[in-house]
Design brief:
Layout lengths: L3 E6 L4 H5 L1 H9 L3 E8 L8 H4 L4 H16 L3 E7 L18 H15 L3 E5 L3 H4 L1 H17 L3 E6 L2 H11 L11 H5 L10 E4 L4 H10 L5 E2 L2 E2 L1 H7 L2 H8 L1 E5 L17
Parallel strand pairs: 1-2, 1-4, 2-3, 4-5
Antiparallel strand pairs: 5-9, 6-9, 7-8
Helix pairs in contact: 4-10, 5-7
């Protein structure tokens, strides 16, 4: 039986890092996959050649569509909000400045149109704490309630595994001075709280292509960034690091599930 998976993200490239393997796996199995982003990512970090003309948001939405094509996504939706940025005053149309009811209504409309079986969002801390990510959790939960979506999965990473991977990467890549690994030691989810662990090894090429589609996010004026480091990891190691994806369903009971659609009629 086919189902519909809607993945909800804050910015273009978040899908590549957190849910792209699951999306590709679902699409390859004949399920309908819909990718929704709240913002255009226009305040993201990137080299001047991508942002100095004010066109970073449009470029990142184009990158999102290339990522979606690599994953077999059937539909891409931008809810129409601007990137709020990490701190300081958000743009007037920034996601965090919008009414939660208004934003949830826009997402609920997509969920209704698609008759979604599963929605993915983020945990209450927004993973690593970006305010747009926290807002995705809030808006996603409210939209699912409005639309009566059967299952909401919070995309996450086991924090001990993440920290171990970052330490391994640091042996071949020098992170920027602003990088603080202690942030990640407090981020995402403890392994014991993971409810869904999805094996995406067979779809790792699609996941890597989705990451590579976000070319702007691998650049900076003083070098490159974490995404670029991930893409330089040799394939056997890359496959090991990125071959699984993780979710938390607060309503889940029983052993860790291996399928986001498990138990759905």
């Amino acid at each position: 039986m086919s189902h519909t998976l809607v993945t909800f993200h804050a910015h273009p490239d978040d899908e590549a890092l957190l849910t792209s393997g699951t999306m590709a796996k679902a699409a390859a199995a004949g399920h309908r996959v819909v990718l929704v982003t709240a913002t255009d990512g226009g305040l993201g970090l990137a080299a001047g050649e991508y942002r100095d003309d004010g066109g970073l948001g449009a470029r990142r939405l184009a990158e999102l569509r290339r990522s979606a094509d690599a994953l077999g996504v059937a539909r891409v939706v931008h809810l129409g909000y601007a990137d709020s940025g990490m701190e300081g005053r958000a743009p007037d149309n920034g996601f965090v400045t919008a009414s939660a009811d208004e934003a949830a209504g826009r997402l609920a409309e997509v969920l209704d149109e698609e008759d979604a079986d599963v929605l993915t969002s983020y945990d209450s801390g927004g993973g690593y704490g970006h305010r747009d990510h926290v807002r995705v959790h809030e808006v996603g939960a409210l939209a699912a309630e409005m639309a009566g979506t059967k299952r909401v999965l919070e995309a996450t990473v086991p924090r001990d595994l993440l920290v171990g991977a970052l330490k391994a990467v640091s042996k071949v890549y020098t992170f920027p001075d602003a990088f603080d690994i202690e942030v990640y030691e407090r981020a995402f989810t403890a392994r014991r709280n993971i409810t869904h662990r999805i094996d995406v090894h067979r779809h790792i090429a699609a996941k890597r292509a989705a990451m590579a589609a976000h070319a702007s996010q691998a650049t900076a004026d003083d070098g490159d960034r974490t995404l670029a480091a991930f893409l330089r990891i040799p394939r056997p190691v890359y496959d090991l690091v990125f071959g699984r994806e993780w979710f938390v369903d607060p309503a889940h009971e029983g052993p860790v599930a291996r399928d986001v659609f498990a138990g759905l009629a």
